[in-house]
Each structure stands twice: as structure tokens, then as C-alpha cells.
Amino acid sequence: VNPTVIRKSDTGSVRSVHRRAVDGDRNALARLLTVIESEPATASPAVWSNTGDAQIIGITGPAGAGKSTLTSALLTQLRGKDLPVAVLAVDPSSPYTGGAVLGDRLRMARHTLDPGVFMRSISARGHHGGLAASVPLAIRALESAGFAYVLIETVGVGQAEIDIVKFADTVVVVLAPGWGDGVQAMKAGLLEIADILVVNKADRPGLAQTTAELRALHTQVRGSVDHSPVSIVETVATDDKGLPELLDALSAHRDVLLQASGALLRERRGRAAAEHIRFALGVEMERRRDAILDSPAFAHEVTAVTERKTDPWTAALRLIITRSPEV
Amino acid sequence: VNPTVIRKSDTGSVRSVHRRAVDGDRNALARLLTVIESEPATASPAVWSNTGDAQIIGITGPAGAGKSTLTSALLTQLRGKDLPVAVLAVDPSSPYTGGAVLGDRLRMARHTLDPGVFMRSISARGHHGGLAASVPLAIRALESAGFAYVLIETVGVGQAEIDIVKFADTVVVVLAPGWGDGVQAMKAGLLEIADILVVNKADRPGLAQTTAELRALHTQVRGSVDHSPVSIVETVATDDKGLPELLDALSAHRDVLLQASGALLRERRGRAAAEHIRFALGVEMERRRDAILDSPAFAHEVTAVTERKTDPWTAALRLIITRSPEV
User: From the list B276, B292, B319, which residue is nearest A312 (CB)?
Assistant: First the structure.
């Protein structure tokens, strides 16, 4: 078997690639992520067979808040602990995928030669137009490959991005002073999902007001949803200002997650698992529908309906029921 | 059994309501359309059991072209033949439904007392956010109730509207001189679906140019798709000008459909049947997915995935396969 080729549905090959990825082979990891993107169902059992102990950190926020600069600065801070870090950049609006994008960014370029950093862009556009069912699996693959931190950075702040950061253990929302008002962030659903609010570009005017407003709004929004406390951290990512404080906030949130034998972490991962299965169900059912539409049985029913020998809904039900469930 | 109540999935009651609708009971017909909107799968066998012989006329076009005035004027013309006419107004962007909307329109008001005219608005927003799977069934219900003409008028010109008029035998696209240019209509996919192009408001400047441009573009677009000829009719619907010519064009298109033992009509209805089954499949599969997500088995799989006893994709496949197909 040519090791550079993974045949469709060849779970054996995927297992071997995954084993090498877990053993630290970064090329194998990159290949595994490619398989995950195109055939998540095939990759899933292998990926799930290994546990890990990463803190999954989701980073989101509106354009212009300095998200990507902050991600890069955070990467530098985390690497100061000499633990391996993975960065997954997700752009739900782009069908583009591959490993190059992140490393091409000026800010990220300095990390490309660091063997303790793994960077990857992933398309969040699923095969059927929906949200990428592969994103949560990619996160687990990185965790199982032994990274201590997995950063997920989203490009925009739409519903798709919010759905993605829900797979994180700790959600960091990056805003800037004067970015609209806190009310905008609240409307966008950002405050509801934030565990840590970063007010980046803290050297800009309006800082105190923005911070105060965010604190008030967050308490209001989150109070009823979840009882984990929020930290608001003010940063100037271009100068690494506030980054140690952000590191502390991340560590503190990790402690909260692990309290009471990890009750909150388990709750979050349970929610992520439910969402993951829901994604997978959607993809698998679409695949079944497409298979039905391509089948001779479908063409047969069309003729029967046209000739009024049956009606369209009875035909549809028959196609679903008689379809072998294994296909 | 209280005749005003139709229990869920009571195909017997639906059959009896349908029988009365076919016998000319307009209240029964209105009730049947309500059942179709909420439970198309239940209504479908009864509706499909009766044939009919209507010309299904789809009317679409951009806002401002005078679609609804034209529909009303056409209604008057068609009624001149003393044959019953049904009008179905479809607004894919509105969840609003009911019989009142059409009759409330000033132009349509004069038809409300005519017993040979049946008007109905129908929501095209399906239960699962998709296109209304009930629209094609409503069309067939009106046909089986003995109408000679079924006019389907759409409100906008998005993809949803284009999908709806595809259920028509004859598609009338209404434009106005100076409505952008013909190129706009081409880009919107309107020329591709038009069997008859109406240039309404023909008393406005730019008529000759618009008509010439449309003729050239239509030949270009349609030439490769379908060989049925296009008619371009110039109308001033507010004065009934050009309406007899439109009637002739509709009749001529009907003749084309019936040529060669109705080969083209059969082809169109075959395509409509395929689309109808596709709609029904989508709705039924979504219903199944929702049922799975609500089931105790789903909760069980979530726990198993969270505890890493299984993986999300294996869990999803198991939920689909073990799900009783009848539910």
C-alpha cells in the first residue's frame, strides 16, 4: 500500500496514520486532517479511540478587533510554557482549505519554524453546504495528538462561527474599544458564549467605558445561562501587553472546568458530543437522500407519479423505507 | 365525526373532504388546502387519485412590473370563456397563509363575488424552513377540483419563486420597459423559464428596445434548453390592452404542449413529479432526523460519545440504522 494514498473507507489505513500522528509525526497529522475533511465518518472511530488532555480555546470576535494578532501573541505566551500548541483557523465562508494560509500570515510566520506549533486552516463549508461536520473531529484529532492547547480561531462572527466555538472548552471573545457598543456584541450572541472577554487595542480611547459596559451586559446575559465567572482582560496584542493576564484567565477558567471532578468540563464536552452527533446525522441523512435521488427506484417512482399510479408522498415514503439502511 | 375537524393522519376524512371539493364544494376545497399546508403526506393520496385537465399558468416577474394587475386582468379575460379559474398566490418570504390576502387586494376584489373564481394565498415556507412542499400538491388539488385554469402568482423573483413556477405548464414572465435591462432578467434566470414574455406597462418609453432585447436574449438562453417557441406580448394591464393577445399566446402554448400526443406536457409534468418527490423526501427525512434527535436513543449515544465508548459518526450511523423506518 502506497502510504501517501488513503483509499476511501479504508479505516485500517486511517488507524495507522492516526497512530503515527499520535506518536508525533506531523506529516501524518496533516494527512489525518485531510482525511477528516473529506471523509469524517471514516476517520471518526480512530480519532475517538485516543483520549487527550488539551484545553480547547475558541477565539472569536468581529473583524478589526485584532483577533489574529492576539492569537499570534497568545501562541508566543503559551509556548513560553514549552508545551505543544495547535492552531486551527476556521473560515465558514470560504471553501478554501489547506495548511498554508495560516503560515502565510505575517503575524503567524514567526511560529512556522517552531516544531512545538502546528498550524492548520480548515474549511467549515460542509459537502452539503452546511457547517463543516469535520471541525469538531479535527479538534479531537489535535487533542489526541498530544497538544496541550488547541486554539480555534474563526474568521467572522456569524452563527456558523458561534456554532464552531461552542466546541471549545473556553471561549475567548475579542473586542476593541468603540467597536459599536457592547449591545452589538450582545445582539450578535457573543456575550452569551464568552468565558473570557478580551478588550484588545486597549490603548485606544473609550477603553474604560467599553469594559464597564461589557461587564454589566455579560452579567445580565450570562447570569441565567451558566454560572462560570467571566474575566475581562484588557490587551494590546501588538505589544504583548495584557497577555500574561490572559494566560492567567485561561488557566483560571481551566481550573473552573476541572472543579468538582470536572463537572463543568464534562457538561461542555457532553454538549459538544450532542452537537457533533447532530452534525454527523445531518451529513449522513443528506448522503442517503442523494443516494435515493440517484437510484433507479427514484426514476421508477417519478414515472409512477407522472402516470398517477401513485402520489408523490407515498412514493417518497416508499423510497425511504425500502432503501437498504446500510447503503 | 365532526366534519369541521380533521384529525391528524386521518386519510379517510381527507378523502371525503376531497370528494366534496371535487363535487364543487368550495368550503371543502378551502379546508382541503388547509390540510395540504399542514399535512401534505396525509392529503397526497386522495389528491392524486383524481385527474384533471387544467392549464397550470405560472406568473412571475420583478416587483413593479404590474404582475398582480396583470393577473387580475387575465382573470377577467379567462372568465370571459365561462370556465372556472383558480388563483394561488405564493409568497415564499412570508409565513402568513390563508384565503383573505388575495381578495383584500383592490384589483382582485372585483373577482371575489364571482363563483367561477377561487382565490387562495399559500405560504411557501415549509415546516423545516425549506420551500413549501405543499405548493405542488395544492396545484394538483385545484386541478382535480375541476378548474380549467390554475394561475400561480409569485410575489418575488428569487430562486424559491423560480422553483415554484417550474410546477406550471406555461410560465409567464412579466417585465416592464426599462426594468433594468433584459440582461438582468437573464441573470435572474427568468428568461430561461419563460414560455411567454409579457412586457407590461407597454405605454411607457423604451418599449421597442426592451422587446427587441428580450427577443434576442431569450433565443440565446432558451435555444439550448427547450425548443418550444416564446411569445412576447405587449400589454397595458390597467386598460386590458394586449390581454386578448395574451390569451391567444396561452392557448397557443397549450397547443404546443399537447402536440405529439402531449409529449411536452408529459415531459413537464414528469419533471414536476420528480421535483415533488424530491420535496417530499426532504420533508420526510427532516422529520425522521427530528424524531431521532428527540429519542432516548440519541441521549444514550451522547453519553456514550462523551465517555468515549463510541465515536460521534458511528453513533449517528447506528441511530439511523436502528431507527424503525416506519416511524
Answer: B276
